[in-house]
Amino acid sequence: xxxxxxxxxxxxxxxxxxxxxxxxxxxxxxxxxxxxxxxxxxxxxxxxxxxxxxxxxxxxxxxxxxxxxxxxxxxxxxxxxxxxxxxxxxxxxxxxxxxxxxxxxxxxxxxxx
Length: 113
Description:
Blueprint: E1 6-12, E2 17-25, H1 30-36, E3 46-56, H2 58-66, E4 71-74, H3 80-86, E5 94-95, E6 110-112
Parallel strand pairs: 2-3, 3-4, 4-5
Antiparallel strand pairs: 1-2, 1-6
C-alpha cells in the first residue's frame, strides 16, 4: 500500500526556506512534488527534507535532478544511497540524518509557517 505524499513548506530558524516531504514519491505524485519545489525566484536555496520519505522512484529523482540549481537535500539512511547511486549527490549537497544543513540534527532549526 502506498503511503500518501505529504508536503509542508517551512523556514529554518535562519530564515532559509524548507520543504518537509513525507510518504512516497512516485510517478503518481511527481507533478505535485515538482510544483512544491518550484524556485523561490530570488536565488535562495530550498532545503528539501526527505527524512520521512520511505520510497522514491525515477520520477521523483527526475524532479530532484530538474531542480539541482536551487536545492539542498536532507536524506534518511534509506534514501541517501539512492541519491548517491543516481549521481544526484555529485550535483547538490545531500545531508544525512546525523547532520542537517545548519550543522544540527537533520530536521533541526525548522519552524512551520
